């Protein structure tokens, strides 16, 4: 019989980093699955144009929310995670966040005349409301995350997604279109903030100018680095909207979302390791940092490599059956964006380490170079090659960012991958591809179920081969599974 309390006891016995990593991974898998299903539904019901308008709304929100954060969110997590004057830093951050939100909304209103199409769609008021609500949510989430409650922070993300999608689906059924999508977005942010606030154990306290100065010293570089990440995330979306149409935005962002499954292990590890590496760095225990980063590379590639390989074979069919015929034209962009996610593994984990080790200046410098290249390449390539050009621009600049981050981080710690494990991952993925390529000769890809069958069979082959040829990964996964109280199959 399943006993939740006993199962929880098993989880609590696991090493803290592994435990929080599992929670992060489970939450990320849940978020990804729900996000995929909802986007598939919206793609079939409203089509690429309305979906593209919503993606543009999210892009604008991200830009103005970054202004409202000013980098102080990352600075607050860093200072709170160090364990000194936590309440004072939290209070200073909360006040700064409110002030910057007012500045952000004021700036948005000042440029409203230049956003005629966006304002006429009725999304401007939704955007302002989202910025206000996100201030409260961000203060609560940063406090919880800084205190090391990674699991709580991850669960809040799951709640955000569940509420957002639930409201959005209801709104679309009722015929509210893009306004319904924006309303669900705001509802999710609010629900997430309320959940985090329930577990927030920090309180308002007096703070001094030195606390603000300490936050500012870190925030300026975090803000600039975050600006760079924002360019990678949304500059292509905004430029596609400028040079092309909202339908093209929808096609491009759907392809990008489909590739994002390759990095949800990276995202989980990024979230889990940041406060740990911050603490280890403060204690000058760099050997733990090196070991954690090396293993993070391995487990990120463990998922990314087979998804990239499988995506090259099945990408066009996946777009056609999952999202609709209109989205299948994004297959060329999808093939390139899959490679982007491999580069993202190294870029994300290495820049995370730079920030956690209190080196945001280096993180900004390497990102700034890549950002400049990204903007130039998008301007040059999108008018000529469309969404494929945007994909190429992103791939080149993501690889550049990862390379420069590696050089900067290598000055302090040994950055390395595990050659044997990585080679085994690639070998298992190649065997998987051979099976998937042969699959349609037996069962043609005539419907969504045959494509899903190929995906399932390919994934099973990959796992079985990898566990057979890599004893280290096999033993670590077996140990972790048994700690969870889950029986390990005898054949493995």
Task: Give an overview in words.
The protein is mainly α and 492 residues long. The protein has 2 domains: 4-417, no CATH class; 420-492, no CATH class. It has 18 helices and no strands. The protein has helices at residues 4-12, 16-69, 72-81, 86-110, 116-120, 123-146, 150-173, 177-199, 209-243, 246-259, 264-282, 286-323, 331-356, 360-385, 387-409, 419-442, 448-469, 471-483. The protein is globular. It starts with a helix and ends in a 9-residue tail after the last helix. 50% of the residues are buried. Residues 1-5 have low confidence and may be disordered.
Q: By helix and strand content, what is the structural category?
A: mainly alpha
Largest sheet: none
Q: Classify the helix fraction into a percent range.
A: over 70%
Distance separating the two termini: 25 Å
Q: How many strand segments?
A: 0
Q: How would you state the average pLDDT, rounded?
A: 85
3D shape: globular
Along the chain, the helix and strand elements come as HHHHHHHHHHHHHHHHHH
Uncertain segments: 1-5
> How many H/I helices?
18
Radius of gyration over all CA atoms, rounded: 22 Å
List the domain count as a whole number. Answer: 2
The amount of beta strand, in percent, is under 5%
């Amino acid at each position: 019989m399943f006993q939740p309390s006993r199962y929880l006891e098993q989880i609590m016995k696991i090493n803290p980093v592994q435990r929080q990593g599992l929670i992060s991974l489970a939450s990320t898998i849940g978020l990804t699955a729900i996000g995929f299903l909802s986007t598939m539904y919206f793609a079939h019901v409203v089509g690429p144009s309305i979906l593209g308008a919503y993606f543009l709304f999210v892009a604008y929100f991200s830009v103005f929310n970054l202004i409202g954060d000013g980098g102080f969110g990352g600075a607050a997590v860093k200072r709170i995670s160090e364990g000194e004057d936590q309440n004072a830093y939290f209070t200073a951050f909360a006040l700064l966040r409110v002030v910057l939100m007012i500045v952000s909304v004021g700036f948005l209103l000042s440029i409203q005349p230049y956003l005629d199409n966006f304002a006429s769609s009725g999304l401007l008021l939704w955007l302002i409301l989202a910025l206000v609500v996100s201030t409260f949510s961000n203060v609560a989430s940063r406090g919880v995350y800084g205190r090391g409650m990674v699991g709580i922070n991850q669960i809040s993300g799951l709640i955000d997604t569940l509420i957002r999608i639930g409201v959005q689906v209801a709104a679309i059924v009722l015929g509210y279109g893009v306004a319904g999508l924006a309303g669900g977005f705001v509802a999710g942010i609010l629900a997430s903030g309320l959940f985090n606030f329930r577990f927030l154990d920090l309180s308002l306290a007096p703070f001094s100018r030195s606390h603000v100065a300490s936050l500012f010293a870190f925030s300026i570089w975090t803000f600039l680095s975050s600006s760079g990440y924002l360019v990678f995330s949304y500059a292509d979306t905004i430029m596609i909207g400028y040079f092309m149409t909202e339908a093209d935005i929808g096609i491009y962002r759907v392809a990008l979302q489909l590739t994002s499954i390759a990095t949800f292990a990276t995202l989980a590890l990024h979230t889990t390791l940041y406060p740990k590496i911050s603490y280890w760095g403060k204690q000058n225990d760099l050997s733990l940092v090196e070991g954690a980063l090396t293993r993070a590379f391995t487990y990120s590639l463990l998922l990314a490599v087979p998804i990239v390989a499988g995506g090259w074979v099945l990408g066009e069919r996946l777009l056609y059956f999952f999202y609709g015929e209109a989205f299948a034209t994004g297959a060329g962009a999808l093939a390139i964006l899959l490679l982007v996610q491999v580069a993202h593994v190294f870029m994300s984990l290495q820049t995370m380490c730079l920030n956690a080790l209190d080196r945001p200046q280096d993180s900004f410098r390497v990102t700034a170079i890549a950002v400049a290249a990204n903007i130039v390449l998008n301007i040059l390539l999108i008018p000529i090659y469309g969404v494929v050009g945007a994909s190429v621009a992103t791939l080149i600049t993501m690889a550049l960012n990862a390379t420069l981050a590696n050089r900067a981080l290598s000055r302090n710690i040994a950055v390395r991958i595990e050659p044997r494990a990585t080679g085994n991952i690639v070998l298992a993925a190649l065997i998987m591809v051979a099976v998937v390529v042969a699959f349609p000769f037996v069962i043609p890809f005539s419907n969504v179920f045959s494509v899903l069958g190929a995906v399932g069979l390919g994934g099973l082959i990959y796992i079985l081969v990898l566990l057979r040829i890599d004893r280290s990964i096999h033993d670590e996964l077996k140990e972790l599974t048994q700690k969870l109280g889950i029986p390990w199959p005898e054949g493995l």
